[in-house]
Amino acid sequence: MTQPPPRFAPAQRVSKFEQDVWSIFTPLAAETKAINLGQGFMNFGPPAVVQEAAKQALDTVEANQYSHPRGRPRLRQALAASYSPEFGRQLDPESEILVTAGANEAMFATFAGFLDEGSEVICMEPFFDQYLPNITMNGGKPVFVPLRAPEHAADQTISSEEWRLDIDELKSKITPRTKMIVLNTPHNPIGKVFSEDELRAIGKVAEEHDLIILTDEVYDRLYYPPLTKFPRIATLDGFWERTITVGSGGKSFASTGWRVGWLIGPAHLIQYSFAAQTRVVFCVNSPCQEAIAAGLEASLTQPLFQDQTKAYLTKRAKLAKVFDDLALPYTMPQGAYYILVNTAKIQYPKDYVFPDILHQRGDDFKMCYWLTKEIGVCCIPPSEFYTKDHWPLAKNYARFAFCKTDDVLDQAAERLLALKKYIV
Ligand code: GLN
């Protein structure tokens, strides 16, 4: 970045921010006409019922004006109707649900609402990259505990459930300053869906140290057989009273650009996320809230989510097959829409020239850059989801998203087969 004159110097809280992975790889995919399996957005629109409702909302006067800062009543009602059975309790749309400007702002507002200078927040590594600045911008200090793949993941395809958290290691990270544990299930980028037993163990640690649990469940409607139920920590062993759950209209209804998300939790927690959010966005964009409400209402009587899961299963199978054909090991995700592939066997030409910005990044940035530019399929280097000290852990991985139409996945598969001659 160019240096501003001292009087225009940025605040400490943003001064160390690097260019993020999305702003490197999304334009690169566009420039090089690569098929973009990088950033996780869909190349298809929301279900017709949702899209129609958005258009209709624009035609009404009220849905173009400010919404209630907690969220439009229709959406909060629809969320209560959809999520009460999921949570096994009657959710109160007045105090236990908050509509947010996407899941990211939901988490930002929660950190703003609970962290003081120096409060520690435990995150599992790899972590979705936004958590870090969201925590530090609000005075918090992220503390990391790893999810580890078994050793045989280097040469065999595994299930995402085999990535494990060591509970004793989690306990060892807790200090008197620890305020919160951030969970992510289904996990980005691994695809792991934490089992009830794992969630119970994590919840018990939170209980022993009186910590808040912030659980990012934005992919909660995308989990795959043999799982028949999505385990939620908020429903287990009385953890409800310390848990805030994050949800996303963008992921559930293929509308990532609408920025409609939500928080669900007990009133005594939600009130502080709400207090902070009112000062960040005041209220969330109105027409899209109406449309997400329509989608949730429809899902009560139509198999919207079941059909979507079926479609995603086909997509997962298409992308997985190409890595099977190439004999590249990967992690088969139990949920979400990413496949983490082990790239150790791919050898790009030794004399390949990379742009300077990549030299300050993890080695996986080079692999993903080469794949994008020369093979024509964009993917994401997962070291972005690790702290710098741990970048080497990600050096042999690339993340491919399958939230794309089948024809695009077929084309990507065809291009990826060109990797054969680079595999040793
Ligand atoms: N959640 C999406 C991903 O992981 C997009 C993230 C973003 O653009 N900030 O790809």
UniProtKB/TrEMBL annotation:
Presence of keyword RNA-binding: no
Cofactor dependency: pyridoxal 5'-phosphate
Protein family membership: Belongs to the class-I pyridoxal-phosphate-dependent aminotransferase family.
Gene Ontology cellular component list: mitochondrion
Coiled coil: none
SUPFAM superfamilies named in the record: PLP-dependent transferases
UniProt keyword annotation of Membrane present: no
Classification via CDD domains: AAT_like
BP terms from Gene Ontology: kynurenic acid biosynthetic process
Protein name (Swiss-Prot/TrEMBL): PLP-dependent transferase
GO molecular function: 2-aminoadipate transaminase activity; kynurenine-oxoglutarate transaminase activity; pyridoxal phosphate binding
Domain of life: Eukaryota
Domain Aminotransferase class I/classII large residue range list: 33-416
Organism listed in the record: Hesseltinella vesiculosa
Keyword field: Aminotransferase, Pyridoxal phosphate, Transferase
InterPro entries linked: Aminotransferase_I/II_large (IPR004839), Kynurenine-oxoglutarate_AT (IPR051326), PyrdxlP-dep_Trfase (IPR015424), PyrdxlP-dep_Trfase_major (IPR015421), PyrdxlP-dep_Trfase_small (IPR015422)
